[in-house]
Amino acid sequence: MTIDRLNPLDPIQPKKPSGVTRADRNSGNDSVSLSSEAVEKAELFKALELAKAAPEIRMDRVAELKAKIDDPNYINDAILNATADRILDQLL
């Protein structure tokens, strides 16, 4: 009895490199164009993230300030100027 070695149908061949090189693939200029709707959604998402990161509203302080504003003796130029300065400091 003779046992012969079995050979595969297609012997493994080393892969030949294709004609496209990395420099050839990157030589073209890529560009991305966003629709106005996509830009608006991105701005909305950013605004929502900023709102979520903002500190909580302290309702006790809000009620206290409303009571002070309703008092006619509270509102004067010094307080208005100090309030305006604080608002500007927060915005800048």
- Using only C-alpha atoms, the radius of gyration works out to 35 Å
Q: How much β-strand is present in the residues?
A: under 5%
How many separate helices?
A: 4
Main pleated-sheet profile:
none
Number of strands: 0
Class by helix and strand content?
Answer: mainly alpha
- Mean residue pLDDT: 82
Ranges where pLDDT stays below 50 over 5 or more residues in a row are none
Intertermini distance = 95 Å
H-E string: HHHH
Shape, per Cα inertia axes: elongated
The helix content, as a percent range, equals 40-55%
What's a quick, concise take on this entry?
The chain is an all-alpha fold and 92 residues long.
Topology (elements, then pairings):
Layout: H1 22-26, H2 36-53, H3 59-70, H4 77-91
What does this structure look like?
This protein has 92 residues and is mainly α. The protein has a domain at 57-92. The chain is 54% helix and 0% strand. The chain is built from four helices and no strands. It has helices at 22-26, 36-53, 59-70, 77-91.
